[in-house]
Write a structure and sequence with these properties.
With 266 residues, the protein is an alpha+beta fold. It is 36% helix and 26% strand.
């Protein structure tokens, strides 16, 4: 099927998952932990993922789904079509009744993104990208044209584990010394969508990134005119350690920030 069909399914699936998440937001949900006390999950995460998978399967019943929860595959296949799902990116915000969380869906083929959608139900915002254009609430948008680092806003993202919090401190220090301001949304997909739509100029981390936290947003940034690399400045692909995303115009400064964090960590 065409890429336009995949783009339509991506936004339909993201909306389906986001309806579940939004409907349970600020409800009385028990919270469980996974790998650590700050790695949390709720029944809403699982139900939202189920709705996304069901929606994808209505059109693409035989294609692989990569997802955060349960027994779905955890790595992106290098050949063939697949879907990458994060039912609630920003679950810590979700359980704290903070509206910065998103449902993200990406369609890939041979590990290359073809379409993506990210829906933030508490804000009423839906981002979707085909192979050519990014839309926010059906209006075309693109990265900002800010070219001076001292006017740019940059986001440190993907939480550093407890034994690496000094790296987070160094990330914040490196950002505020180079740029106009710092934001932290607590959701990598929300941060990347906002970068793609021109609300911030950079998103940076030096830690390992899960595909469900990144691939949809990476595709949006690129389609919207931005740039995404690894810590060496090479084109980012799923599985790379670290992620450096920008509007393109300030990429060298964002990359220098990431390298400073990483060098200090060593």
């Amino acid at each position: 099927m065409s890429e336009s069909t995949r783009a339509a399914v991506a936004i339909a699936a993201a909306r389906a998952g986001a309806r579940v998440a939004g409907g349970e937001f600020r409800g009385d949900l028990p919270v469980e932990t996974k790998s650590s006390e700050t790695d949390v999950v709720t029944a809403a995460d699982r139900e939202a993922q189920s709705r996304v998978v069901e929606t994808v399967a209505e059109t693409f019943p035989d294609e692989t789904v990569v997802g955060e929860e349960g027994d779905l595959r955890k790595t992106v296949p290098q050949t063939g079509p697949a879907w990458i799902v994060d039912p609630i990116d920003g679950t810590n915000n979700f359980v704290r009744e903070v509206g910065e969380f998103a449902t993200a869906v990406a369609a890939v083929d041979d590990a290359e993104p073809l379409a993506a959608a990210t829906v933030l139900p508490a804000h009423g915002d839906a981002y979707r990208a085909d192979e050519e254009t990014l839309y926010r609430n059906d209006e075309p948008v693109s990265v900002s044209d800010v070219s001076q680092p001292e006017l740019a806003c940059v986001v440190p993202t993907v939480w550093w584990p407890p034994d690496r919090r000094e790296e987070y401190a160094r990330a914040c220090s490196a950002i505020v010394r180079r740029f106009a301001d710092l934001r932290r949304f607590g959701s990598a997909q929300a941060a990347l969508a906002r970068l793609a739509a021109g609300s911030v100029e950079g998103v940076v981390t030096n830690v390992d990134c899960n595909p469900w936290d990144t691939v949809a947003g990476v595709h949006m940034v690129r389609v919207a005119g931005g740039r995404v690399t690894d810590l060496d400045g090479d084109r980012w692909t799923a599985g790379d350690r670290g992620l450096v995303a920008s509007n393109g115009a300030v990429h060298d400064a964002v990359l220098s920030t990431a390298r400073e964090i990483d060098t200090a960590a060593d």
